[in-house]
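User: I'm putting together notes for a lab meeting next week and I want to include a structural view of one of the chains we've been expressing. I don't have a solved structure, so I'd like a prediction I can at least talk through. The sequence is below, exactly as it appears in our construct file.
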Amino acid sequence: MRFHGTMPSTLLLGLMLAASLAPNLAHAEVDALVRDALAMTEKGQAKEAFALLSAQEEKRAGDPDFDTVLGIAANEAGEFPRAIFALERVLAVQPDNARARAELGRALFAVGDNKGARALLQQTKTQGIPVEAARTIDQFLQAIDKVEEAGQSSWKGYAEAGVGSDNNINSGITSSNIAVPAFQAPGVLFALSPSGIKTSASFLTAGAGISGRKVIDSRWSLIGNAATVVRDNSGGNSAFNTTQTDISAGGAYRLEKNDYSLVAAYGNSGVGGSTARTSSGLVGEWTYRFDGFRQVTTYGQWSRLDYPQPGQSVRNSNRSVLGSTYAHLFRNSLLAYGGAYIGNEKVNGAYPWLGQNFWGLRGGLQKSITVNLAWFVTLGYENRNFGGQDQLFNVTRQDRQTNLNIGLTWSPAPFWRVTPQIAFTRAASNIVIDDYSRRMISIVARREF
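Assistant: Thanks for the context. Below is the predicted structure for the 449-residue chain, given as structure tokens.
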């Protein structure tokens, strides 16, 4: 899945206002309908309260008490355009209504009007509101600052280190003897090379990365990213040590709720101290933000894959991928995302069994436990159908791979993040040497700059 790292913080900030302001900004004396709807909203029944008030909106629109509570319920229910209409009616007749002004600022932020949200919230601070409410508004204004910083020239980086245990560092199989139909009579088994047999080891990892944005004007930016990670396996298993380096650079264009980007990307994958594969190509993305809580990202990728090791050039291919991901932050701070993609790898026509068509599904959940601690789970599935009969096993290869990651994210101090997790992989294949399972446990500490 391709997902912007800034999105969760942007979304979470939109939840802050109502929870802190609700007990502090008192409303005027109101009738039973409005009073009951407000009580329902404060008990977490915002959708029910919004439905109750919506049924009376045509008759009651213009009543500031009614419209204030309608706006609050609409915000809590995620009906931000309706909240804006109701709260603007309130301020038209009660320009000093601090609660309505703050709620309108929240609604404007949710639909992406940061400038309007900032102006309203700053005005609200001057109205003598309670201390706790003022602190919340300060936090909210800082949130808007962070969102707007995405439109300014900036850079950020990180360094990380980790330790872990992997029960199958080479994605090998458990059996040391296999049948190869192309070279034997039935019942004859071949001894598999030790490099293909399941091997376990502990490991150390280290990585670093940097990304930056250079703003050209209010819409155009230059963007770039570079990252590398190395892994060292214990127990004399250096042949399976890996490195991965990725570099990308290109341009981005922002228009209202839309972000577009196109970058040139290069990657180098190493195994045992030598380059195993390189990739180079283009990646394009379009992100549309419905409001401060929902966004969808659609992406396309084309790359050239080259295998420089002796005898491996027949695997060189052109890879194309097209996919989309939707992300939603719910009012209880649960972040959920899911997406799908399709693609293919085309090889030299003389080796069709090395090419493939594939499709996949990916999704995940993340939920805060405390201010500094959250849990997450991700799940992925990929279906791969290869392009011809394998010359050794006399079947057309089919793979069904499932990946499951479960872990925690802990921030013990500013700019620090510690991530313990466990990852499971199950690759089911109709070719024995490609059928394997894997379990990896790790903990990684990252320092951001």
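A couple of points you could mention at the meeting. The longest helix spans residues 131-149. The CA atoms of residues 85 and 385 lie 52 Å apart.

User: Perfect, that's what I needed.
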